[in-house]
Specification:
A four-stranded antiparallel β-sheet has the order 3-2-1-4, with no helix packed on it. It is about 55% helix and about 15% strand. Helix 1 packs antiparallel against helix 2, helix 1 runs parallel beside helix 3 and helix 1 runs antiparallel to helix 4. By secondary structure, the protein is an alpha+beta fold.
Length: about 210
């Protein structure tokens, strides 16, 4: 009896470590890849591939790998623990908002303040303002709504902005709030729920009797 309990404890411990490592790699990869893009800065093609992994591939892997790892359960009878929905959603959010955190870090490191003129403004969905410095240099990318392109901003307005000379990080007006707590919460949720869901998948696999 003691040997059985010891064996069960060993298997549970092994499952916990295995799925914790996977969850950390997937969540950390989504956040790290999206954050590194503007900070390094990475070439456009590399950023595109990294973004694909951060927003799509790694979040899906965090949920699909535990399901595909099942050995005893026939494919048609496999199911996914509800906990594994969380790392998919959180992973996508980490990939999206991690890029914004990377922009803020990049601007803090190499950003340049300048007086800029609004060349054009797009209000079709989320506001975006195309800018040019007063001495005629284009600023890229465009200024987003959350970073200072307001509904009241129009062509010809002058703004004081911080921009990236490399043209990678999005410019801002210096009032962008930090997403640190939000990102930490998403990361924690992805790791905890991903690990929990993976352990449940492994337990189902061991308990399957083929009936």
């Amino acid at each position: 009896m003691a040997d059985v309990m010891s064996g069960d404890g060993t298997r549970i411990g092994s499952d916990l470590v295995r799925w914790l490592v996977l969850s950390l790699l997937c969540a950390g990869g989504s956040l790290g890849l999206s954050w590194l893009g503007p900070v390094v800065p990475l070439p456009t093609v590399v950023r595109g591939v990294g973004g694909l992994f951060a927003i799509l591939i790694l979040p899906l892997a965090s949920s699909l790998v535990p399901v595909l790892f099942l050995r005893r359960v026939p494919r048609k009878k496999r199911k996914m623990a509800w906990q594994l929905i969380v790392p998919v959603i959180a992973g996508v959010a980490l990939g999206v908002f991690g890029s914004g955190a990377g922009d803020a870090t990049a601007l803090a490191d190499r950003g340049v303040w300048a007086d800029a003129v609004v060349v054009s403004a797009d209000y079709s969905s989320t506001n975006h303002c195309d800018l040019r410095t007063v001495d005629g240099r284009d600023i890229s990318p465009s200024l987003s709504e959350s970073d200072g392109c307001q509904d009241t901003t129009s062509k010809g307005d002058e703004l004081r902005v911080r921009y990236d000379p490399e043209g990678v990080a999005s410019p801002d007006d210096g009032h962008t709030s930090s997403d640190g707590v939000f990102l930490a919460t998403l990361f924690g949720a992805a790791v905890v729920m991903g690990t929990w869901g993976g352990v449940r998948q492994s337990r189902w696999d061991r308990s399957y009797d083929g009936a």
